[in-house]
């Protein structure tokens, strides 16, 4: 059988736990496509999986990687709308850190005009996450105010651009002056260096927020509720400072706030296909119009996945980290 190179984490640990293995090239089943990978995005969930705290969903491969770009190598039974050698991006349940990856056809989208295959690898995870959390669960509308925590992250840079392009006022937190400045170049009215400034006071003085996109958790959650306007929405997508929090529910009740959250990886294929359609309709035109572009921090070859994970663990990066094949 034909083989390919792939990266796994057989034992939990730090970046050194990643191993480059030889695996059999998978074959697409009904409704699937096989993608010859050009590049794969490196994301925080990959790190959590490497550490042993985020196992793949049932039936998913143990190969890391939740998003890729590349060209279609072969089509499974019943797949329509794609042809071999089409340039595509895909959201995956796993398997992106490899020379070939399987994807459900519903989670595959054409590479947007104006982007290289490599640049496009930074789109699926961020665009799917931002659309479903900021614009569906958060219901951000034109003229409202969004606060994005982790504004210089892959998700943060995407959220800032999409929200600003759709007519929202945006504030963003980041950990250095340079990262705060980056947020402003992407469309944030104010990049807030949370190490030196009180983001809650700054946002409240500016009129409060209607939606908060939070990946920090911990003591940020109460601060988010305090700065939200009446009928505001706080959407939780991660909890770098901890998932256990103590809240004053009176504030939530008096301001009729919504505290919600979601994950993406374990959703059914049909739900991901629905989100893919929304992303194609709403995010792809922003790319074509020059209003949205992936911010790329660094690029590593597949065999240097350890270095890529050292980079994301350092928290020094701004934007997406990619692996190329």
Note down, in words, how this protein is organized.
- The protein has 325 residues and is of the alpha/beta class.
- The protein folds into 2 domains: 3-122 and 294-324, Medium-chain alcohol dehydrogenases, catalytic domain (Quinone Oxidoreductase, Chain A, domain 1), CATH 3.90.180; 126-261, Rossmann fold.
- 30% of the residues lie in helices and 27% in strands.
- It contains 11 helices and 15 strands.
- The protein has helices at residues 44-50, 117-120, 124-137, 154-165, 177-185, 199-205, 220-227, 249-254, 269-282, 284-288, 305-314; strands spanning 3-8, 19-24, 32-42, 67-75, 87-91, 100-104, 108-110, 145-148, 169-174, 190-193, 209-214, 228-236, 258-261, 296-301, 320-324.
- Strands 3, 4, 5, 6, 7, 14 and 15 form a 7-stranded mixed β-sheet that branches. A 6-stranded parallel β-sheet has the order 10-9-8-11-12-13, sandwiched between helices.
- Strand 11 (209-214), helix 7 (220-227) and strand 12 (228-236) form a beta-alpha-beta unit.
- The longest helix is centred in the middle third of the chain and has 14 residues, at 124-137.
- The chain is globular.
- The model has no long low-confidence stretch (mean pLDDT 97).
CATH architecture of the largest domain: Alpha-Beta Complex
> Major beta sheet, specifics?
7 strands, mixed
Number of helices: 11
Low-pLDDT stretches are none
At the fold tier of CATH, the topology name of the largest domain is Quinone Oxidoreductase, Chain A, domain 1
Helices and strands: which structural class? alpha/beta
What pattern of helices and strands is seen along the backbone?
Answer: EEEHEEEEHHEHEHEHEHEHEHHEHE
Strand content: 25-35%
What is the CATH H-level superfamily of the largest domain? Medium-chain alcohol dehydrogenases, catalytic domain
Using the coordinates above, name the CATH class of the largest domain. Answer: Alpha Beta
Helix content: 25-40%
**What value does the Rg take, in angstroms?**
19 Å
Distance between the termini: 20 Å
